[in-house]
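Weekly sync, protein design subgroup
Attendees: M.S., D.O., the rotation student, P.L. (late)

Item 1: inverse folding check
M.S. brought a backbone from last month's batch and wanted to see whether the design step gives back something sensible before we order anything. D.O. pointed out we never logged the input encoding, so this time it goes straight into the notes. Structure tokens as presented (240 positions):
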């Protein structure tokens, strides 16, 4: 268990002290998670609606099991071939899940930024979706889950958005994090989810889209209740 000194009685003091400690750990290569330092602060809260307790470098959240928040966009269009989804492929240089399939736009929620502003920013950076079009993205809920690996513990909540795109729109990446985009049929998307070609949390976002739009049902997909359960995991930690 990590306990902060009572003298760190403001969010600013806690943020500054942790920044100093983490910078020293990074410089001494104390943990592999810190090698991907992003200079991006994330807010640490007991609950999302509460004020931040402090802010912390994004890659260090997994060291303490701090919940991260992010946003994901399902981009789709309606054509003579039916409903098609735009899918991205993560660049092979990405530090996490390189070359895996991904949503058309997604990203972590930086400290001090609203969820809607975050998805608009990611739309611009990752897929060159114009701001006025990105602002039409509809919030459709969130997924929550937990996983762990050699970099730490990752309790995460991702806010989901749906956006119908013009048939003439073609995404173009500007931040180097996406190598390709594909316009796929629903059957093609389902197949790639089943084959494990997606980054795991993106697969959950895709499954949510398929369920909400009527492309999955309990009769045709008997694992649907389990999928829904796994999309809304809860985390309970004992307090000392």
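Designed sequence read out in the meeting:
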């Amino acid at each position: 268990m990590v306990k902060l000194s009572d003298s760190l009685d403001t969010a600013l003091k806690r943020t500054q002290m942790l920044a100093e400690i983490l910078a020293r750990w990074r410089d001494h290569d104390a943990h592999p998670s810190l090698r991907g330092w992003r200079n991006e602060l994330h807010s640490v809260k007991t609950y999302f609606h509460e004020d931040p307790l402090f802010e912390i470098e994004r890659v260090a959240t997994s060291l303490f099991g701090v919940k991260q928040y992010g946003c994901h966009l399902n981009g789709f269009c309606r054509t003579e071939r039916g409903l098609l989804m735009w899918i991205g492929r993560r660049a092979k240089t990405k530090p996490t899940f390189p070359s895996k399939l991904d949503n058309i736009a997604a990203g972590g929620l930086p400290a001090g930024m609203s969820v809607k502003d975050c998805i608009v920013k990611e739309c611009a950076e990752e897929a060159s979706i114009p701001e006025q079009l990105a602002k039409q993205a509809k919030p459709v809920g969130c997924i929550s889950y937990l996983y762990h690996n050699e970099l730490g513990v990752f309790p995460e909540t991702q806010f989901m958005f749906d956006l119908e795109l013009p048939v003439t729109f073609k995404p173009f990446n500007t931040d180097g994090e996406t190598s390709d985009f594909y316009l796929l049929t629903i059957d093609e998307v389902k197949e790639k989810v089943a084959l494990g070609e997606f980054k795991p949390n993106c697969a959950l976002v895709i499954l949510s889209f398929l369920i909400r739009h009527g492309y999955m049902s309990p009769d045709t997909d008997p694992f649907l209740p389990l999928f829904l359960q796994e999309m809304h995991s809860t985390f309970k930690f004992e307090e000392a």
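Discussion: The chain has seven helices and nine strands. The chain has a mean pLDDT of 93.
Action: P.L. to compare against the previous round before Friday.
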